[in-house]
Structure formats: structure tokens, C-alpha cells
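Human: Not sure, check this?
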Amino acid sequence: MRIHQMTAALTTGDAIGNYILMLQRIFAGLGYAGGIFADHIHPALGHLCRPSSEYHPTGRDVLWFHYSIGADNFYALADNPDRLVMDFHGVTPPHLMKGGDAELERRAQQALAALPGYADRFQMCVVHSDYAGDLLRQHGYKHIEKAPLVVDTARLDGAEDEALSRLLRRLEYILFVGRIVPQKGLLDLVQMFAQLKRLRPAIRLILVGGTGVLPGYARQVEALMRELGLVSDTILTGVVVAPDVLTSLYRHAAVTVLLSEWETFCVPAVESLYFGTPVVYNDIPPLREVVGEVGLLVQRERHAETAMAIHALLEDRPRYEQLRAAGRARAARFTPEALQARLRALLPRVVE
């Protein structure tokens, strides 16, 4: 028996893509080798993935279907004799895509509209937060199991880009990692940063993430930086794929700030905890579940209050070090070993 995976797109520098590649290694290690299939494949990953059209069910395998946005390969869910597992990553609310990419908005609407119709189609649904599980239950799903999204310690092994780290050690900066899209609350982040600059004039903001999904929104973020006079204090790196560069950025940040309006998990939160960098996070259920008491809980629209809370944390060294240690301990819940142990318990329900 093989376990094949299918997704809308497999690309570099993407949390779901990294997770899919890790799953493939775990499945193979458990004796269930299989392929990865996608509608859209980044050229750098072409040797690891095949087009969805090349997937052919046999009635003897498992199709592990990653559900996050509408895709042409939804056809594989109809009349498929293989055993089906949904890995539910949540569907971005379409209103958070308005004014951007009309096709992405349409596909988000497609995924939400189709979701109730698949409630009885999957033998098991895997979620990564209680919030995501509740979403599925609202649509009639019953066979729901939770497994962690994890830090890929084989990729983020602790090695730094030494030249970059020498530069970063001279800076005090706050860090954001994720796509430059509306759900991440980046307009609120920039406005909060302007308030923080009044308290800590030397501090900088580094935004790590791709701008290609909704470029119109990225232009709004850049326009707000210009309006607030923050251009020289802010660095937009684009997508960062190199693990040593990402490690350096996390490890030397003062805090990682995540003011998302919507998530169903948040891999950068876990990665930041893993590197001992405290997380400042908006008060939404998935982030409360993932980070909890080891981070700094804020309200994303209260810019001045959030800035003062970050300033107070950075001035309180004992509390800061306490959060660093507690974050590292919490990150142990989100390791490949934890995921493998959970899958080892779940897979017999699918394959037997």
C-alpha cells in the first residue's frame, strides 16, 4: 500500500509545501512510500512532484488530500476507489482577497462551497488546531483527528548564515514571517511599528514573505510605510528559502510579531518559539492554542497599546528570558518526532 499526496500547488518557501515534503519522508519511513501530485508545481520541485493528471487510483492505496483552496484536482475526490484522507489547512475567507486576485478569490469561494459536499467522502480528516476541527464539524464532518504542524528540524537544523548574523546582531528588530496578504494584518503591523519607533527609535522591522500572491496588497503596505516615513527602517526580503538565512533572522530578532486576522494554525509562530524568540500575537483562537501563555497576547487594532506592551517586554529582561525558555519548551510539541508518533497512531485506522 502507498500513500499518495495531492495539493493545489507545491512551491518553495511555503509552510504547507514544506509540511507535504516532510510527510512524504515520514510516510516512507513508516513503510508507505508514495508520490506527490499537484496542479501547479514550482520548477525547483519538479523532480519531487508530478501533475495531478498522472495520479491513477488503484483501490489499494491512500490519497492524502490537502484542502486549502479550490483546485482542478477536486475531480480526484469523485468515484475514487482509494481510501481518502483530508488534511484540512483551512480556506482563507474570500473577503480577505477582495480587490486582489479575482481568480484566488473565486477558488476560495469554490473550496468553501464544495466543503459540505465532501463530509462523508473522507475516511479521516486531519486538522492542526481545535479551531480547524470546529470548522469542519460545522459542515457536517465527523471523523476528525488532530496532528501537529511542525518545525522541520532536518531543514532548520540550527546552522546560521554567519555573515548575515554578524549584521543582525548589531540591530534591534521585530520580525514578521509569512505571505504578504491581508489575512496577516500587515497594515496594522506597520501602524503599530510606527508607534513602537516613538518608544525605541533605533528599532527596525523585517518582513519576510512573498508578495506575488496579492501584489496589490503589498503595494498598499509599501505605500503606508512611505506615508508614515518608515521606508528606511523597514526591510522587505521577499521569499526566503535558504534555511540558514531564515535561522539567522529568527534567532536574532527581538520578537516575532503575528497580527493575523485569520489563521487555522501558524507555522512561523512555532518556528519562532523553536529558536527561542518570543511571539507577539493577535487574539484569535488558533494563535491562542499554538502560542498560549508563552507569548504576548495583543489586540491587533490597538496599535499604541501593542507597541507599549512590546516595549515593556523588551525592557523587562527577566520576563523576556522567561518567555524565551518557555517558548523553546513549548516548541517540543511541534517536532517531526511528535508528528511521526501521531501518524503512527492514526494510520492503522486508514490502512487496515
The chain has two domains: 3-150+336-351, 162-334. The CA atoms of residues 205 and 234 lie 5 Å apart.
